[in-house]
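Minutes, project check-in
Item: structure for the 337-residue chain
Input as provided by the requester:
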Amino acid sequence: MPKIFISIMKYDYGIAKRGYSYEYNNLYLPLCDVYGKEQIFLFDFYTKFKNFGKSEMNKKLKQLITEQKPDIALFALFENEFDPQIINTLKKVTKSVVYFFDDPWRKDFANHWRRYFSFFSTPDYTMYKKYLSDSIENSIFSPFGFNKNIYKKLGLEKIYDVSFIGGYSPLRDWIIRKLKKKGIDVKVFGRGWNNEKSWLTEEEMVKVINQTKINLNLSNAVSYHLLFLIWSLHSPRAVKELLLLRKTVEQVKGRHYEINGCGGFQLSYNIPGLEIAFEIDKEIAVYDSLKNLPQRIKYFLDNENERESIALNGYNRAARDHSAQNYMQQLINKVLG
């Protein structure tokens, strides 16, 4: 069994009261499932960064990896908490890997940091093909997946017609308002919305997905839809959020796998690369424009058998191919050759 050192934020954005981070649930725990907890050493870099400062945290990191000599050292970065020169020296001790979540739109950040690691991953197939076409040979395609021990099919009664789970954004707010004007009531859960109780734990989120007839997966990237831009000008909050928004391109997200992993029916914006993960209209439903979204929702609310068939096919595909346990094992195998 390989010995694996993993350096991540243990808590969501480094804040313990917000619960465990995405990378803790979907990188660290799946690695423990596959290789055994005794083979995985967790280094909560952000807590040490806050407690001891950047220099001391990096010294502790180098000392531990030098002493332990793990087969692989896996990193999930946040900002620039690490010392590039120290990270670069680790390649002499172990096979270092940086796991990128959003390199399609944080290109400068990813291009800077990937140079200091033995390998780097991307969850985006288009980016992976671009790296290969640019003769960058140390890239690994590693989709998000879902932790099969967290995201489960519960067989609960459907009490919501339509729900959306995700953080507030002006575009999402505008879409949901448009749907309500069409008579479609969307139950919204997530950070930043007016109702603070809508912030869900992972357990609560799994329950909502299982209790929903149609789980929406809405864009959070920059939108140049004219009517949306006109609407946003009348909202100071929307203008502020748009000015701060850095995400400029669409990508397949963790939620795409999580909803299907719970056996939920999913209606998603048609994102490039989604067809690689799931067969469109057989394992996942999509909408191509905001204009036809209300019609798509009403159609699937009226056609329960088709809706349930797509949900079941999507669940079977997710369970077979897309667990985080499966993807993490593939990642480690590729690094070890």
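Outcome recorded: Residues 217 and 268 are 5 Å apart (CA to CA).
No further action items on this chain.
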